[in-house]
Every structure is written in structure tokens, then in C-alpha cells.
Amino acid sequence: MDTSETEKEIIHPTSQSKYIKQAKNATSKANAEKQALNAIREKIELERVKRINRQKKKLVAKKGQEHLQNQAVVDHRKVQIETM
């Protein structure tokens, strides 16, 4: 131990437990904040996936509607050709 250290520089055992408790509380708070951020990220990701799925469904429905319209035109043309 360095002889230049004074007794004031040495942390008293009761003060040590106080600092340890503060460090544990800070760690717990940081972990809680980390968990909250992860939950927020998961919620954002879930909403993003839901939005993408809704867009895909709309696109599929639109493509299906276009296909039905095109098929109706083709069927109409077949009828016209057959009646000629």
C-alpha cells in the first residue's frame, strides 16, 4: 500500500456497500431500460411485418382482379370470334 494514501482516500466498508448498492441499482435500471428498448424494437418490427403483409395481400388482390378483368376481355373476344 502506498504510504502517501490518507485514511480519507480509503473507502470505509459501510461506504463501499453503499457504492455497491448504487452500482447494482444502476445496473438494474440499465437492464430494465435495455429490456424496454428491446420490447419497443420488437413491437416496431411486428408492425412493419404486419404492414408488409397487408401490402402483399392488397397487391395479390389487385393482381387477381386484373387477371379476372383480362380473362373477361379474352372470354368476350372468344365469344365475338365464335359468333362471326
From TrEMBL:
The keyword Coiled coil applies. Residues 1-20 are annotated as: Disordered. Residues 1-11 have a biased composition (Basic and acidic residues). Residues 20-49 form a coiled coil. Keywords: Coiled coil. This is Uncharacterized protein. It comes from Dreissena polymorpha. The lineage of its organism: Eukaryota, Metazoa, Spiralia, Lophotrochozoa, Mollusca.
